[in-house]
Design goal:
44% of the residues lie in helices and 10% in strands. The chain is mainly alpha-helical. Helix 8 packs across helix 9 and helix 11 crosses helix 14. The radius of gyration is 33 Å and the shape is elongated. The chain starts with a helix and ends in a 6-residue tail after the last helix. The relative contact order is 0.08.
Length: 556
């Protein structure tokens, strides 16, 4: 083993001792039971909806216990960093109401909160491990490691850098000095306990209960070698050091990290640090033919947070849905109660919950149905400013028309309409109220009239007759009675049943007649109450749209 002076010479001369960092980041003055949680996204890509899912649980656990929620940017893989990723994190967290209590924007005395700015801290602790004989310099090249893996596979032994396969673990001091003198690139490896091979690591997971895995046998790298920047830590080492110094009490992360717990426990032990508690959540899943798989940012648009923000799912509806995925009891509660109730770790399942966009849209529609017209207008406009700029002018220029349209079958009713489920659906659901967004029907042969099942001549004849008799009546029942009367005069049965019993005697039923008017006014065979729609549109628009159906197109 190199002498203390030789080890210290490998690091900057002014590098503080670990005691300095322990004093610089003292234990937090929090009440008993307060949880300090953290999220550690990497800016190697834009944030996955699973990151919001984990952050939501972090926030709930910390704030319900008067604790602290920390955002730490794990940016030690600089080569893979994506420009703009950190800014996207901030936008996403703000949108979903899971912004941290502490990060580099909101410092709380335990920063910096980006790992790339904490190199000196890691060096101090790596040096301490080397002084204790629990870490050592390794000069193995990537080619040597690859060749060794091939030999291990051929011999049927576990791959890795362990035991006799750890070529620099027990190297002589002279060999180490020779490589250092020659300027050979090196990394720092943690020296796994001598008794690790064949041992078991046991720990209690806050979600899964007692777990047991093979102890870590590998001499894992804790400081990486880089020709272009100072040595940065691996995830394993930085996690242990940062979670200790930031005084994290509970680490909530994906189940893919369960296999890393044994090495983390060894690092805590080697550094003589108290262990954090772990809660490993199951990944969000997607239904596919024949089964399910993890929701993938590479394959699935709905894996990205930007998908939900761009579609215009209101944040409260999203949080209600995600909380229901975490604890199924919350899914059946009204939104306000579901957001107020705690997320319980022991109710988080170990099977990955399925992300069901149809269910989410229903929840979102239910939420929007509870909003006032003014609230919808405000949130819609905020969304449109970013994602549909041309819609903003339409909303601003037609403010009263917008509120009147939103009031149809919503204001003053026990079961309001739920057809608007995301802000991006506004054009489809309400666009026909606005001349700027509506394309009039182009004559009786327009394809939008085809589902009615009538010949163009019959459509033209009825539309022309209804237009001639039209009265802008305020009462919906009276309004529809005039449509019924014109339909009867032109050969339409008064009911679907009557039409089916005597098809040869009628052009169609009242349903077909009303659908002609519905498509004329809205462009669709589905809409709210026709009388209310007509009242909001006004007589001039109604007559103009009926004129468009009459048109001048000849039948084929």
């Amino acid at each position: 083993m190199l002498s203390r002076d030789e080890i210290d010479a490998l690091f900057p001369a002014d590098l503080p001792e670990v005691e300095y960092w322990e004093q610089h980041y003292p234990p937090r003055e929090l009440a008993d039971g307060a949880e300090v949680t953290r999220l550690g996204p990497s800016p190697t890509g834009f944030i996955h909806i699973g990151g919001i899912y984990a952050a939501m649980i972090d926030v709930d656990r910390s704030r319900r216990t008067d604790g602290v929620y920390v955002l730490r940017i794990e940016d030690t893989d600089r080569a893979r960093e994506v420009e703009g990723a950190i800014e996207q994190f901030e936008r996403a967290f703000a949108y979903f109401g899971v912004s941290p209590d502490e990060d580099d924007v909101r410092p709380g005395g335990y920063g910096p909160y980006a790992q790339s700015a904490r190199e000196r801290i890691y060096h101090s602790y790596a040096r301490e491990l080397m002084r204790r004989g629990r870490a050592y310099p390794c000069f193995a090249t990537s080619e040597q490691l690859q060749e060794q893996t091939k030999v291990q596979q051929a011999q049927g032994v576990p791959s890795g850098y362990w035991g006799k396969w750890a070529m620099w673990r027990d190297a002589s001091d002279d060999d180490v000095r020779e490589q250092l003198a020659a300027g050979t690139p090196w990394v720092v490896r943690f020296r796994a306990p001598d008794d690790a091979i064949g041992s078991r690591a046991r720990f209690v997971d806050e979600i899964r209960g007692p777990l047991e895995h093979d102890a870590n046998r590998n001499d894992t790298v804790i400081l990486k070698s880089s020709a272009t920047s100072p040595r940065l830590p691996t995830y394993h080492f930085a996690h242990v050091v940062d979670d200790h110094l930031m005084r994290i009490t509970l680490v909530i992360r994906g189940e893919e990290w369960i296999s890393s717990v044994p090495v983390h426990l060894q690092l805590f032990e080697a550094l003589e640090l108290p262990q954090v508690r772990y809660a490993h959540i199951a990944p969000l899943m997607k239904q596919i033919p024949g089964g399910k798989r993890k929701l993938s940012k590479r394959k699935d648009p709905e894996a990205s947070v930007d998908f939900y923000v761009g579609e215009g799912f209101p944040a409260p509806a999203m949080l209600h849905y995600l909380r229901g995925l975490a604890n199924s009891r919350l899914a059946d509660m009204p939104l306000e109660r579901a957001l107020a109730e705690p997320i319980l770790l022991d109710e988080c399942g170990v099977a990955g919950p399925l992300v069901d966009l149809a269910k989410l849209r229903d929840i979102s529609g239910d939420h929007i149905a509870t909003l006032t017209g003014e609230q919808i207008a405000a949130e819609l406009r905020t969304w449109a400013l970013r994602f549909d700029e041309s819609l903003v002018a339409v909303l601003d220029d037609n403010r009263e028309l917008l509120l009147q349209a939103l009031a149809i079958e919503r204001d003053g009713v026990d079961n309001p309409r739920k057809d608007l489920r995301t802000w991006s659906e506004f054009r489809e659901v309400y666009g026909y109220f606005f001349d700027e967004l509506f394309t009039p029907v182009d004559g009786p042969a327009d394809e939008r009239l085809a589902p009615i099942g009538l010949e163009p001549d019959a459509i033209r004849t009825f539309a022309e007759a209804f237009r001639a008799a039209y009265q802008p009546l305020a009462d919906s029942a009276e309004w529809f009675d005039q449509l019924r009367a014109v339909a009867a005069e032109h050969g339409f049965a008064g009911s679907v049943k009557e039409f089916k019993q005597n098809r040869d005697q009628f052009v169609g039923s009242i349903r077909e007649a009303s659908q002609i008017v519905r498509v004329a006014l809205t462009g669709s065979t589905r809409s709210p109450d026709l009388g209310q729609v007509a009242a909001v549109l006004g007589a001039d628009r109604v007559l103009a749209r009926l004129d468009a159906v009459v048109g001048s197109r000849t039948t084929a």
